Amino acid sequence: MGFITLEDIDTAVRAIGERTSLRPKVGIILGSGLGLLAEGVEAADRIPVEDIPGWPIPAVEGHAGQLVCGNLESQPVLILQGRAHYYEGHPMSKIGLPIRVMQRMGAEILIVTNAAGAVNPDFSPGELMLITDHINLMGMAGLTPLRGPNLDTFGPRFPDMSQAYDRDLMALAREVARERGIQLCEGIYICLGGPSFETPADLRFLRGIGVDAVGMSTVPEVNVARHGGMRVLGVSGISNKANLDGQTITTHEEVLAAGQVIAPRLSVLIRGVLHRL
Ligand code: HPA
Known about the structure:
The chain has 277 residues and is α/β, with parallel strands linked by helices. The protein has helices at 6-17, 92-95, 97-105, 137-140, 167-180, 200-208, 219-227, 252-275, and strands at 26-30, 42-48, 66-72, 75-81, 109-118, 128-135, 184-191, 213-215, 231-241.
């Protein structure tokens, strides 16, 4: 039901093409409360996502829902400020549409960000985590945007995921972090369906299977990007410590407030990476 076709993708590409002449080299997705980076884009064309046919419209607070197309550190970028999440009710197939559109417009690199809860007890709110790999728990049970007829134009039916996050881009991010004095921890991200946060027993399970940070996005998008052969850099902003002991409460307000601290650091890191591409 309702799988994304090449025609759906190209319809969206054409609608965007009527509003911007930009040919992006890098697609960037900004997570909850992390919109700051989009403000620095020069000569930006801003396109409300409501104006793009078929686009999954985000409904959650902290997401403006626009495409920002322009130059950042002299690189042509297409920034999605405000992503749609599966828990909002969108079909999983639609979660992949923005990635397909970015790639079809010319983007070869995807930089994906999110707000995440720290399952690793060494991580603290406000820190950035370089995503070195992910656990596709939802995908393992078949919940993936790659389900349905394969889009051969983009990639094979059974795409490799041995290097979901690009080693060279990770090395670049580490270098930039070191030079700019940004603390950058590293770890494994997992996407859960949400929208409820985890129970202490959920979190002990996640810790047991090797998770460092938990969120409600990114993995389906990275799956689609890698299927298409895009190179991916993933960064989580740690917004809260996961409630492993059952003594603390996690709220969306807390996640957005942490974004105020995380967004400036994330901007410096991503700008640094773009500068050196
Ligand atoms: N759990 C799941 N998703 C999240 C969290 C969390 O603790 N923090 C931010 N996104």
